[in-house]
Design brief:
The chain is of the alpha+beta class. The protein has two domains: about 70 residues, no CATH class; about 60 residues, no CATH class. Helices cover about 20% and strands about 30% of the residues. The strands form two sheets. The protein has an eight-stranded antiparallel β-sheet, covered by helices on one side. The protein is globular and about 45 Å long. The relative contact order is 0.16.
């Protein structure tokens, strides 16, 4: 109970002090592409869990990160790869709807909202998902494909239904 109260006080303090965590190019708060996996793991301590995403059927290590210990699921997934003799964050997946870009776009936003604030450079698919890419931000916004839209034929950003929801954000370099 005390931990939940402290987590709520922390969240309220962040909101009142304007220290909201922002999703930006190559970074979500203190987690950035290129950071060592060890430093991220240490920073998140008991809120980090090492997992294997098994992307394309291969070993794909990542850190699932919770912003507070009271959360039932991770807010971020920091994918890990080798760089020289170190393990570093290579990509960041944002799944927490409270995390937003400076322009207010995040999980749960519509494609129409995304297009009103950014230029969508292309729409494509990978690993069974459909993404709208904003090159200026280095972010691929995963789209909800559960509706009746025939996604296999959509490659033109202007053809994506504006009410389609964003389900995650993939930050790359």
């Amino acid at each position: 109970m005390l931990q939940s109260v402290l987590a709520l006080v922390f969240v309220l303090h962040q909101a009142s002090s304007g220290s909201q965590i922002v999703v930006e190019r190559s970074r979500v708060g203190t987690v950035s592409i290129g950071a060592t996996a060890e430093s991220v793991y240490r920073e998140f301590d008991d809120r980090a869990r090492l997992v294997d995403l098994k992307l394309e059927g291969m070993l794909s290590p990542a850190l699932e990160l919770k912003l507070s210990g009271a959360q039932p699921v991770a807010s971020l997934i920091a994918e890990i790869g080798a760089s020289g003799n170190r393990l570093v964050v290579t990509r960041i997946v944002v799944v927490d709807p409270t995390l937003r870009t400076r322009e207010g776009i995040g999980v749960g936003s519509t494609y129409g909202e995304l297009r009103s604030r950014y230029t969508v450079d292309w729409v494509g698919s990978g690993e069974g998902n459909v993404f709208a890419r904003v090159e200026a931000m280095g972010i691929s916004f995963q789209l909800d494909t559960s509706g009746p839209t025939r996604w296999s034929s959509i490659r033109d950003p202007s053809k994506v239904p504006i009410d389609t929801r964003i389900v995650s954000m993939l930050l790359t370099r």
